Structure formats: structure tokens, C-alpha cells
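sorry for the late reply, my laptop died twice this morning and i had to redo everyting from scratch. anyway the thing you sent over, i finally got around to it. pasting the sequence first so we're on the same page, its 100 residues, then the predicted structure underneath. double check i copied it right bc i was rushing
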Amino acid sequence: MIYNHVVTNRVNVSLRILCSYIERFRCYLSFTQTFGVKVKKTKSPCIDVCEFSGPNGWCVGCGRTREETARWKKIKPYEVNAISKELKRRTTKMNQQSDH
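ok and here's the structure:
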């Protein structure tokens, strides 16, 4: 009897959490439709050269690491900005190394 009560409570808590997520998503959809807000997709810096050679393990084409490349579509906008700034530094460094 106690076990059933515990399971029922856990299910109720899980359902409440799920409902709160659904409600948040509904609010988000309503907001975006009402105000015409479009969510921008993050454009990848990839130029289809994908070669991770060299001492740093950066892609010769875009300057990202394998890890950054793998999770690019899932990262947050602030991470994209940070990585984009870093990519400028990396590509400059790679160009300097190739000139020598």
C-alpha cells in the first residue's frame, strides 16, 4: 500500500513537471507567433574542407575543434559568439604558421 502511494506521488510530480514544460512551450509559441519573432539558426563556419591536421587539432577549413564541430548545432548563442571570436584568432594563427 505504501509503495503504491510513493509511485503515485512520483508520477504526479513527473506529470506536474511535464505540464509546466508544456505550458512554457505554449507560451513561447504564442509569443513568437504574436510578435513574429523568428529564431535564427546558427550558421556554421564550415567551408567543407574538414581536415583536422596540425599540432592544435583545429580544422584547416574553419578552425574549430572536432568537439566544437560535433556539437555546433546544439550550442547556445553565447557559446557561438565566444567560439566565433576564438576562430578569428585561430585562423590568424594558422595562417601565420603556414607562412613560415
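The helical segments are 2-35, 66-70, 77-99.
thats about all i looked at so far, will dig more tmrw
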